[in-house]
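Sample entry (203 residues):
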Amino acid sequence: MITKLKLWFAELKANPLPTLEATQEGRAVWAVMATACVFLLGSAMGFFQVFLEMDPCENCVYIRFSQFCILIAGVIMIINPKNNVLKILGLALAWYGIFYGLDKAIILAGQHVSSHAADAGLDLFQSGQGANACSLEPTFPLGLPLHEWLPFEFAPSGICGEDDWSLLGLNMAQYCIISYAVFIACALPLTIAFITKTLKKGK
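Predicted structure, serialized as tokens:
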């Protein structure tokens, strides 16, 4: 496995675009993307919600929804990564999930700062992002009642930004932002490679 990775990086360094074009036509890279989402979702529900007993807030369940979108996108592309229809559908869903989740993570990060404003002697609601900005009745895209279908996963029961968990000085929302930045950094070159490969086939 390590040897294959070393060879892949060597090829990427020598021939970036052809290597990425070949990579996006394989199942491995999309399997990694899907596995990353399984890890993130498993951490959220297994470690934070069950083990640490941290109730998910409204934006937390939106972030979960976005990660489910990216997971499903990966599965779609794994089916047949050389099929353009499936690839376009998968990439569109993945990018939707990335930007939707990034937006909610940024909002949650702001709510985290606002909810801890009292520690600095500031008004909790001065930025308009305190507990009142968080609802127990989520509104998912397309009106999907996911909180009714899958309440454990998608029914919010916590207050946005009220968690005190941190690792290396960063809170959960900030790690979510980092995860979406990594998704973008990985998905962007692969998307460009798909476009260039498709254009070459069309000539």
